[in-house]
Amino acid sequence: MSDAISRRQLLVLTGAGLAAAALPAALPLLDRERQTLADELIATLADPARAAEVGRQWMVSTERSGNTSTFAQKIAKRLRSHGWHPGDSSDVMRAAIGARVRDEFMHDDMVEIAGWQISRTEAELCALAAASLGTAPAEAEPAREG
Q: So where are the chain's domains?
């Protein structure tokens, strides 16, 4: 058995090393991209502060936690199925949100917040606003009665 490294193995190892070295440099770009997505989603809300309060109530009542990146990615995944793609205009994003909300109402994919029924995407948009504005529960708080 030979201990010599073949040219192919050397190329593979070099490529893997370059990819591993580039990964830490790419992470801040991904974070910025996720924050931009979160900001774009929050900009679709008429009153982010009130939406954040609704989101906080939902997170507390369901013992949910999450951050802006988590909520933004979940919402973006749903919006892609309604024709939105990263980089599209805010009008296209709003249209996709509207289509998604209508779809959720049609399929009874609703959540209850303080006696109100809203679509899951609307609840997650509100939770995104809460996480972004720093009003989301730090960790799951026990549900309150009343």
A: 8-133
